[in-house]
Amino acid sequence: MERERTLTGATRALVMPLSLLAAALLAAQPVQAEPKWGIHSPVTPGQRSTAQEVAAKGVPLSALAPNAPDNYTVRRGDTLWRISGMFLKSPWRWPELWGMNFQDIHNPHLIYPGQELYLERVGDRAFLRTRGDSGTMHVTPRTRADMLGGGPLPALSPQLIEPFLTESLIFDDNTFQHAPRIVAMANTDRVLVAKGDRAYARGPADAPLLRGQDLPTVFRVFRSATKLKDPVTGETLGYEGEYMGQAELIRGESETVDEDTSAPPPPTPSSQPAAGDNSAQPVTPLGEDQPKMLPVPATIDVLSSKEEIRPGDRLLPEPPRDFRSYVPHAPLVPVDARVVKVHGSAVRYAGQSQIVIINKGLRDGLENGDVLAVLSAGQHMVDKTTHAHDVIKLPDERNGLAMVFRPFERVSYALVMEITSPVQVGDKLVNPDGLGRKP
Q1: CB 72 within 8 Å of CB 86
Q2: Is there a contact between 396 and 428 (Cβ–Cβ < 8 Å)?
Q3: Mean pLDDT of all residues belonging to the chain
Q4: Does the structure show a pLDDT above 60 at 41?
Q5: pTM of the model
Q6: Is the pLDDT of residue 271 over 80?
Q7: Phi first, then psi: what are they for 45, rounded to 5°?
Q8: What is the dihedral of CA 326, 327, 329, 335, to 10 degrees?
Q9: Cβ atoms within 10 A of the Cβ of 200, count?
Q10: Domains of the chain
């Protein structure tokens, strides 16, 4: 019957062999709908072919964790990283464990609480299935009240990275300096505004803040931009904005006839514009019959505020929410990255579950889910065991793991997953396989 052939999307996810999951997540590259400062660079056919070849073989039994269970039922609150570590010594080898099949893959299918995972050993290799035999879970088409138990399983704990998906942006200096700015509050007696307040903003002279078809109406508010410098080359890689809140554009900029004779006189042609004010223009003398026009700033309402917003804060368009699906996996390209910044005000060291910015991004082939090994830089010291007192550098030591969760064009945010000692600016991040002792 037609009704029996029609399943909900959630039910189809359960019917699909779970061995196809990781392939789908890697084959279906996330659409990173960012502004011009974040352009997506897809995985090449060669990289995808390599991933397919490796994953189809499963993992050697020696790669399994010592206490890997024969089966496990996915629970609410689980993350893909936790389950990866339960079955594998190296969580980034998760796609290989699935025994992927790139044939007939069209859409990503997620793991849900309630699914039972079976560890299958074939010769000297291991795979993970939803059933010990065919890898398929058969579901009778009928209504199930709590079939999936709370939604798909995230790769990471959402609360650790959500602020960096909904707040932080990386952009170039020109983008920030030419962004619209808040100029005044609706209540002129106040200097600061918060959620629910009204304020006024202006764009640069060549790009006023207007409403119209295909123009943004929701903006993120930023106060300042921190320069991100490559610790190796000294090159400026971009700027990270200090997020203040979110605002909605109610009315665009316009002009009005000046009918207030008590208003302060406009600046003369010789007057210099205020610092950072790129909208001030020389005033052209008006004829007697020519009305004097005054600019009317755009009206914005503050939707949310992390801190109180004030004049001078900048507005950048809210990027479209994109679908981010990823599983932890080793990068498909060679990586030699450095920590550019530890996230946070005046924070020098990063511990477990903290965020760092690294100097590699989409242009270097990084993608969501790439797992990198963190190496602490060896110290320089004097060899006091000889009369020469040579200056030596100790070897770099493997310190832990970090996972890329938001790549931009030239830099990426990475979450420190496992660590034995604090991470700092200048520490290396490289491909995770075959690099010294395990943390």
Answers
A1: yes
A2: yes
A3: 76
A4: no
A5: 0.70
A6: no
A7: -55, -35
A8: 30
A9: 18
A10: 2-159 (no CATH), 170-259+290-317 (no CATH), 336-430 (2.40.10.410)
pLDDT tens track for 186-222 = 887 777 888 889 999 999 999 999 999 889 999 999 9
Contacts of 75 (CB under 8 A, 6+ apart): 113
Of 188, 185, 182, the C-alpha closest to 197 is: 185
Residue type, 83: I
pLDDT digits (tens, 9 = 90+) for 212-259: 988 999 999 999 888 999 999 999 999 998 899 999 999 999 999 987
**pLDDT, tens digit, for every residue of 415-428?**
999 888 999 999 99
Closest CA to 228 of 338, 74, 100: 338
Q: Which residues pair with 293 in a beta bridge?
A: 257
Mapped to the 3 state alphabet, what secondary structure does 331-360 carry? Answer: CCCCCEEEEEEECCCCCCEECCCCEEEECC
Distances (CA, A) of 34 to 108, 122, 406: 21, 44, 11
DSSP per-residue string spanning 220-249: EEEEEEEEEE-TTT--EEEEEEEEEEEEEE
Burial 11-26 (b: 16+ CB within 10 A, else e): bebbebbbbbbbbbbb
Q: Is the pLDDT of residue 106 over 50?
A: no
Positive or negative CA dihedral for 355, 361, 362, 368?
negative
Looking at per-residue pLDDT, the higher value among 391 and 5 belongs to: 391
The pLDDT score that the predictor gives to residue 94 is: 81
> Is 429 within 8 Å of 372 (Cβ atoms)?
yes
Residue pair 211/221 in contact (Cβ under 8 Å)? The answer is no
What is the rounded distance in angstroms from the CA atom of residue 244 to the CA atom of residue 241? Answer: 9
331: which residues sit within 8 A by CB, 6+ positions away?
Answer: 365, 366, 367, 370, 371, 372, 431
Q: What is the number of other CB atoms lying within 10 angstroms of the CB of residue 374?
A: 31
